[in-house]
Amino acid sequence: MEYDFSELAEVIRINSYTKNVEGVNRVGELFREKLEELGYDCEKIRSEIYGDHLYFHAPSTREGKGRILLLGHLDTVFPPGTFEEFREDGEWIYGPGVCDMKGGIMVMVEALRTLPEIANIDILLVSDEEIGSDDSRVHTRRIAGEYDYTLVFEAAGPHGEVVTGRKGIGTFYIDIDGRAAHAGNNYRDGIDANAELAHKLLSLVNLTDVEEGTTVNVGKIEGGIGANTISPHAHMVFEARFTKASERDRVLQSINQIVNTPFIPGTKATLRGGLQRDVMEENRAQREFLKLLEEWSGKTIPTERRGGGSDANIAASAGSTTLDGFGPYGDGDHTIHERASKRSYMDRIELVSSIFRGFLAHQPSGRSTSS
Questions:
Q1: Rg of the chain over all Cα atoms, to the nearest angstrom
Q2: What span, in angstroms and rounded, lies between the C-alpha atoms of 62 and 169?
Q3: What pLDDT sits at residue 246?
Q4: How much is the pTM?
């Protein structure tokens, strides 16, 4: 069956770069109109920096039954004037957000449209996911913690996989102070911040354990004044990613130890930054929920783990049983070649519709243990 992508094309053509507050809010308003037509009530969560976060309450609630939160984001990574077109051919649709993740939100909307009744299925759409959810994180964590289950509508895997695990991500900054001195006349009077940075850089990188899925990457360094001056200051930016809570704890403890242990006497180091998204680990509650989804849909749902983070990490850390990847499959995301599969788009609407119908017909009560 041929599908009309005009509704999706309309929101794709609106630039919703995270810092384009007007564009993000216009996209949010279009989705608000669609969801209010289904009976949803919209609560706007204002941001002083970014667009509004939108929290939608279902038309009705069945007391004593499970509750699902549908989670998505309105923003994309493309500044105005860089990538704003929508086009399609026989197999693919192209444009900013077709898979990451305006396409995912449209899958959500289309699936809800198939239901004769909507109950216990609420929605949160945030405006700053693409830059780490710095503003929305506290709201997502608070809201997701109230739900038994969270479905996140990032892109599916190439074979329709949903995501059961995501790496935790932390971004950190180290500022190092030394003491300047003339490198020829007063070498011994100097305290070399650059040398201290070099020692710390190697110690940080050595925390990497690829077999455990842990990486520490120092992505940027700078320091000093010139070749004839002992460096009085240095700075580095680094990222840590991990697949296990035990590795998170090891890395964070080691980072603090490295920062607080001077290799060059007289240097002083200051650490800033921290976790953006905690690790999302596979767990028993997920597996039990996935079995229910397969029963409701009559389909086998493949799974995968991903190295990148999403707001699924935040929902999972809040205690909600979380699965990600319910949007359409696509590739080229975060590039001007972003595209999504038409077949996958239709398949995802069918899958999510069947999951919603099964949930409404056989809503589980209470929370499962997540060990």
A1: 24
A2: 37
A3: 96
A4: 0.89
Q: Which residue has the tokens 């935040």?
A: 314
How many angstroms separate the CA atoms of 232 and 190, rounded? Answer: 8
Residue type, 215: T
pLDDT of 369 > 80? The answer is no
At the topology level, CATH places domain 168-277 in Alpha-Beta Plaits (3.30.70)
* 330/339 Cα distance (integer angstroms): 5
Mean pLDDT value across residues 256-272: 98
- Integer Cα distance of 168 and 214 in angstroms: 9
pLDDT band at 364 (very low <50, low <70, confident <90, very high): low
Q: Where are the domains of the chain?
A: 6-166+280-361, 168-277
Query: Of the candidates 4, 29, 147, which has an alpha carbon nearest to the alpha carbon of residue 88?
Result: 4
Asked if residue 236 has a cis previous peptide bond (ω within 30° of 0), the answer is no
Q: Let me know: does 367 contact 286? Beta carbons within 8 Å.
A: no
Q: Do domains 6-166+280-361 and 168-277 have the same CATH topology?
A: no
CATH superfamily label, 6-166+280-361 = Zn peptidases (3.40.630.10)
Cα(273)–Cα(371) distance, integer angstroms: 29
pLDDT digits (tens, 9 = 90+) for 186-224: 999 999 999 999 999 999 999 999 999 999 999 999 999
The pLDDT-based confidence of 1 (bands split at 50, 70, 90) is low
Rounded distance between C-alpha atoms, residue 90 and residue 93, angstroms: 9
